[in-house]
Specification:
410 residues; alpha+beta; 8-stranded mixed β-sheet; 6-stranded antiparallel β-sheet; 14 strands
């Protein structure tokens, strides 16, 4: 069935006029994944249609553990938009509170102002003064309304002396509803990806988005496995105020997690006061990367402990177990609730090594299998063989001299 868009105006108020840019936005953007690319092309098409745009922005409030919002900025002459992100807390700054974006998000249905005439109104916002000084002339902004009334913001600024005419504003009014729909789809897709990356990690999120959502789906992969656990957490959580415990855990996980992710590791889960991470052996430097991550994590925890000591608190202690081997990587759980994780004997060995750190006084223990694979036999200290729970035969266990990894080169 073919829809006759030419007759759409006969049955409603939108669009006021059929336009090439609107046809393109509605019918030809389905294969473009990123809203910034769509926005750039839309602005170029508006220019071709005679709209005197010199600058345009999209402002999105986003759901992200680190970012409050993002801005997509286009100006005449660029082929790729500039994307800026803003951390949580920016909404309390003067820069945000004294901006047109805040005015729109607070409920304004439109902001329109000549910004080149030096009037008091043109100086209402620092941004308008800045744009006027740059030679731009006419500013207009509207809310971009998504589902359930979520308000984002789009703005256009003219660089021509005549600014925007009434005809230009009518064209904008036709484009905005379509832009709202197109941008919401992309924002929802990005949100789904962000949430998955936040809770299951980047690689697992790619697998899930690619369709690995059935129970038992997955694959066997070789990996260097790292399991870390915070010591005496039960006593700490019993004695400390709740907010202090949460702050402690966040600081500890930042110290451990950032080096792991920096060096290509993937954190699959946080388990109370512990974490499980893998470094896929498909990367030839996986073992070396894991050792670098441990080194930097130890340095970060040392710095964190200085803060704790200065505050009169006991320093944090931890145990890390490292092994290498094949793991089953995929979906495990009930019919309606799944966990994308790794299981297998290799994971169990890493876990047992982490527990063994409590007994033999080393905060980092490496299995013989990992040490041989990493090629660091001469740079680590043999601690003997140990029979780990669930294993019939003892395995060789190694420690890092003085519990430092800075001088180990895998």
């Amino acid at each position: 069935m073919q829809i006759n868009l030419a007759s759409a105006a006969d049955s409603g108020a939108w669009p006021a006029k059929r336009r090439n840019v609107l046809d393109w936005l509605v019918m030809e953007t389905q294969n473009e994944r990123f809203i910034d690319n769509i926005f750039v092309e839309m602005c170029e098409r508006l220019l071709d249609a005679g709209v005197p745009i010199g600058r345009a922005t999209l402002h999105f409030a986003i759901q992200h553990p680190q970012w409050f919002g993002a801005r997509i900025l286009w100006h005449k002459g660029i082929t790729e938009a500039k994307i800026d992100t803003f951390e949580h807390g920016v909404e309390e700054t003067a820069e945000y509170l004294e901006s047109p974006v805040y005015e729109i998000r607070r409920g304004a249905s439109e902001l329109r102002q000549r910004i080149d005439d030096g009037s008091q109104a043109a100086s209402r916002y620092p941004l308008w003064r800045q744009l006027g000084n740059e030679g731009l002339t006419d500013y207009v902004a509207w809310p971009l309304i998504h589902t359930q009334g979520k308000r984002h913001v789009v703005s256009f600024v003219s660089d021509k002396p005549q600014g925007f005419s009434q005809e230009h504003l009518v064209l904008f009014a036709d484009v905005l509803p379509a832009l709202a729909l197109v941008s919401e789809i992309r924002l929802k897709n990005r949100l789904a990806r962000t949430l998955l990356e936040t809770y299951v990690g980047p690689h697992a999120s790619e697998q899930i988005l690619a369709g690995a959502t059935s129970r038992g789906s997955g694959s066997t992969v070789g990996a260097a496995i790292l399991i870390c656990d915070l010591r005496n957490f039960t006593a700490i959580s019993d004695a400390w105020p709740r907010d202090d415990v949460i702050e402690l855990l966040n600081g500890y996980f930042d110290a451990m997690s950032e080096p792991i992710e920096k060096h290509g590791g993937e954190i699959l889960k946080f388990m109370g006061d512990g974490l499980l991470a893998i470094f896929p052996l498909s990367n030839s430097t996986a073992c070396a990367d894991l050792l670098k991550a441990i080194s930097e994590a130890q340095t970060a925890v040392t710095a964190l402990n200085k803060e704790h000591t200065a505050a009169g608190r006991e320093p944090l202690a931890y145990g890390i177990g490292v092994h290498a081997g094949d793991v089953m990587y995929g979906n495990i759980g009930s019919r309606s609730r799944l966990d994308f994780t790794v299981i297998g004997p290799a994971v169990n060995i890493a876990s047992r090594l982490e527990s063994l750190t409590k007994q033999i006084g080393h905060s980092v223990l490496l299995s013989e299998a990992f040490v041989k694979l990493a090629g660091v036999e001469t740079q680590v200290k043999s601690l003997g063989s140990y029979t780990l729970k669930g294993l019939e035969r003892p395995i060789g266990v190694f420690g890092i001299p003085a519990d430092q990894t800075e001088n180990i080169e895998a």
